[in-house]
Amino acid sequence: MKNSSLDMTVGNPTALILKFSMPLFVGNLLQQCYNLVDSIVVGKFIGKEALAAVGSSGIIVFLLVSLFSGVAMGATILISQFFGAKEHGKIKVVIDTMFSAMLVGSLIVTLGGIALSAPILRLMQTPEGEIFQMSTTYLYTLFAGVVASFGYNINAGILQGVGDSRTTLLFLAIATVVNIILDLLFVVVFDMGVFGVALATVIAQGVSFLFGVFYINRVHSLFRISFRKLSPDVHMLGKAISIGLPAGFQNALFSLGAIVLQRLVYKYGASFMAAYTAVNKIDTFVFLPVVSFSSAITTYVGQNVGAKNLDRVVSGVKQTLLLGLGVSVVLGGMVLLWGRFLLSMFTDDNMVIEYGMEFMYRLMPIYWLLATLMVTNSAIRGAGESVLPMVFSIMSMLVVRIPTAYILDYFFGQNEIFWCYGIGWVVGNSLALPYFFSGRWKKKSLLE
Q1: pLDDT grade, residue 430 (50/70/90)?
Q2: Contact 6, 160 (CB under 8 A)
Q3: Number of domains in the chain
């Protein structure tokens, strides 16, 4: 095992972004592969009702873990700025603080998730009966094991903060292999239904989390993890919350917006619901390079702000915007070309496939707008400005998208609601891009 940290304060920005983001992309691809396997196993071996149940449940998990995940993101940005400033002792303080917060936060989320799952499903107008029962089973299992998910993501955040994206690929590879094996074992062999799918996910994340702790302790002697000797710092927790909570709050509101949008989708029945779920799974693969570039630019900006290399920040962001635009255009076109084949992986129902293609036609040609918005917001957040990216995203994904969807549905019908995505992204970019290029983020360093 060797230290794979990457100093992003020197060298060509494009080369650094690609070097950092490629392992993230492959790792995220592996993660989506096991999510895809979940959906394929559910759709093929349990049925379209189960596929709809799993699709409706995922957004609820995202909603209830968003706040903690946002704080973890704040810790990653802190680590990147301390790493760029060469203040390695403070990295250990951040890590101890985050694992202490994880132990408390996971208990709160587990209890809250189990208590709120059924009411939120009813709020979404999830059909009573088989779909509702499957959804609650899936959610209860995931929330019972949420500590594994939190620990797994904290480990990844630590390594990304010090510029190590290669090792997170190893974590994801372990989780993917374990999850796929257990999926097939629990569902196909033991006929455990959606409970087996959720249990496989929890076990896979737990195995990867424990391996991550072992790896960090072997390789990074400066910030060894010991759960018996955690020394949390209230001031450091406050900093992580200040930068991360707005991002978590943004994600929570995004989840609420998605729930409201799902409520609109679900009134059209199981076939439309299943198509919506399947396209969201396919859409995630186009999203992978976007989120990888966004994570890379967050670390890149954080390290360079910590090192006070502000001119490098601007050039790096411009080059990353071009990368995101080009890749999203190419991948969006490929998805449209092979859309029917991709949808047929989830279902043999022709109506589901037709609905899915209508969604794709309205989403993929304008995906580059999302890439631009995410890279810009991530750069601003990496500099230490947390509130405005939240505002820009909320305007795009909640204030504009949801009312637009209902208006389009009312005047033009169910297939046209999906134009709401592109309209929201246009509004978000009209706010985020002018702010970044104004340079006002330069005064937001967390180290001041």
Answers
A1: very high
A2: no
A3: 1
**Of 129, 56, 121, 126, nearest to 276 (Cα)?**
56
Contact indicator for 48, 349 with CB cutoff of 8 Å = yes
DSSP 310-331: HHHHHHHHHHHHHHHHHHHHHH
Pinpoint the alpha helices (H) of 233-366. 234-266, 270-306, 310-337, 339-344, 350-363
For residues 173 and 159, give the distance between their C-alpha atoms in angstroms, rounded to a whole number: 16
Residues 349 and 292: their CA atoms lie apart, in Å, by 33
For residues 325 and 433, give the distance between their C-alpha atoms in angstroms, rounded to a whole number: 14
| Domain ranges, residue 212 | 13-443
The answer to the question of residue 1 being in a domain is no
Tell whether 4 is covered by a domain: no
Q: What is the per-residue pLDDT across 433-444, written as a single tens digit (0 to 9) for each?
A: 999 988 888 776
- What tokens does 243 get? 């930068």
Res. 222 pLDDT band, cuts 50 70 90: low
Cα(44)–Cα(48) distance, integer angstroms:
8
100, with CB counted inside 10 A (0-12, 13-18, 19+), is: middle
Q: What is the distance between the alpha carbons of residues 48 and 273, in angstroms, rounded to a whole number?
A: 9
Nearest to 415 by CA among 277, 272, 261, 259: 272
Residue 2 counted as domain residue = no
N-term to C-term CA, the chain: 35
Q: Is 6 contained in some domain?
A: no
Sign of the four-CA dihedral 440, 7, 321, 21: negative
Element (H, E) at 14: helix 13-45
Please state the pTM of the whole predicted model: 0.71
Q: Cβ(201)–Cβ(43) under 8 Å?
A: no
Q: What are the pLDDT digits (tens) for 316-333? A: 999 999 999 999 999 989
Evaluate if residue 3 carries a pLDDT over 60.
no
378 with 297: CB under 8 angstroms?
A: yes
Q: What is d(CA 98, CA 142) in angstroms, rounded to the nearest whole number?
A: 21
Tokens 């729930």 belong to which residue?
A: 259
- Confidence band of 167 (pLDDT split at 50, 70, 90): confident
Is residue 446 scored above 60 in pLDDT? no
Spatial CA neighbour of 433 closest among 328, 309, 314: 314
Query: Shortest CA distance to 273 belongs to which of 343, 355, 395?
Result: 355
